[in-house]
Amino acid sequence: MHSSTLLASGPHLRKLLLAGLLIAFGTVAIDMATALKMGPTIVAGDGAQYVDLAHSLATGRGYTLEIGPWPDKPNVGRAPLWPALLAIPVWLFGAADPRLVAQCTGAVLHGVSALLLVLLTFRLTGRFWAAVGAGAMLAIYLPETGLVVRGYSEVAYVAAMLAGVLLFIEDGLLPYLGAFLAGAAVLARPNYAILPFLLMALVLLSRNRKTGRLFPAAATLLFCLPTAFWVARNHAVSGYFPLLSATEGETLYGGNNAVVASQPELWGYWLAPNEIPGEPSKLDLAREKTEAQVNAYYHDKGVRYVREHLAAMPRMLVGKLVRGFIPMSWTRDPFAIVVACFRFCRYSLFLLTFRFWPGRNGVYDAVVATMFLLTLGTTLVYYGSFRLTYCIEPFLFPYIAAGIAHAFWPGTATSPDTP
């Protein structure tokens, strides 16, 4: 296991940063070329809601969703990290199409993630070219480009979590900042809200660090602060506690209902509750209920369906796993087919190469293992989706790069001339 800190890398750090910046600029160029080809109209669905929330913040209307059923009420459905980050460039470039601004901002975050992955991989392996390889793999990884051009929040999660993990495995006071950033990442993907358990696992596995009693408690507190703040805010505006995201019930019922259980094309996937036969539309519900009340209504319906159809659950669970983790395209869209090919190559390379990385960092292994378990649990409870499983995928690239480097160029030197 490579143990020296990144800041102690000396003369190699400057060259590493230069390589990382070049990869970052290349990443942005790839994403922007794709965005310009597809146009801003591809930003729809969840992406359009995030853009609308950012626009509301930038224009002083607060955290409200004008295109939603409750345009005059504080939104409690969408987690705030991505809209908050996006609100800054939307405000700065007020005359521009906010959808295009979202694509540009996502491209920048993708570039930042590639740079962070270069630094993280070098910190873990001490190998310059392995670090460059990991960053380059993320740069050309078309699945993230697809998320960027659609305005989705996963790009914010990956950037924040990579920064948090990188700082957490450093020394001094940086791990405290890393814990806070990792907690902030939860506000882009709320299904990772129980990551404090991951944090405690990291502390226990950090055998070389004399943590004492203060570090675990302080780091856990810092991790939980962003989530606690948002739960308190949602309670203040909705009266419900604890409430992290009011889309949870819709997601649960959408992935557990009679339609997805019976229609092969929706096996393991999700259907908007509006489209379930016999269900009132969300707009009709919104006339009588608040957003939090509709969330509770859908949650109860999803739980009731599961309890009443336990015999159907094994087939549905298999479908969720297939839909989430098997890299295949479920449509004839050429872009979706190419994305599935990229994911297949990444999974294959990981399975072929990770075992060649000797002395892996135990802390990082705990990060990835816990992310996988949380992703698996989310998929089984809700539904299978590339967007849910993607959040762990960039963290597999260090295994691939380090495995290839150790398999073909054995050694542990940190020289830029060593793969």
Provide mean pLDDT, rounded. Answer: 90
Number of domains: 1
Helix/strand-derived class?
mainly alpha
Q: What is the percentage of strand-forming residues?
A: under 5%
- What is the β-strand count? 0
Largest sheet descriptor: none
Tell me, what's the shape?
globular
Question: Which consecutive residue ranges, at least 5 long each, have pLDDT under 50?
Answer: 413-418
The Cα radius of gyration reads 22 Å
Q: What separation lies between the terminal Cα atoms? A: 16 Å
Succession of helices and strands = HHHHHHHHHHHHHHHHHHH
Number of helices: 19
The helicity comes to 55-70%
Could you list some keywords that capture this structure?
single chain; 419 residues; mainly alpha; 19 helices; 64% helix; 0% strand; disordered C terminus
Question: What would you note in describing this structure?
Answer:
The chain has one domain. The chain is 64% helix and 0% strand. The protein is built from 19 helices and no strands. The two termini are 16 Å apart.
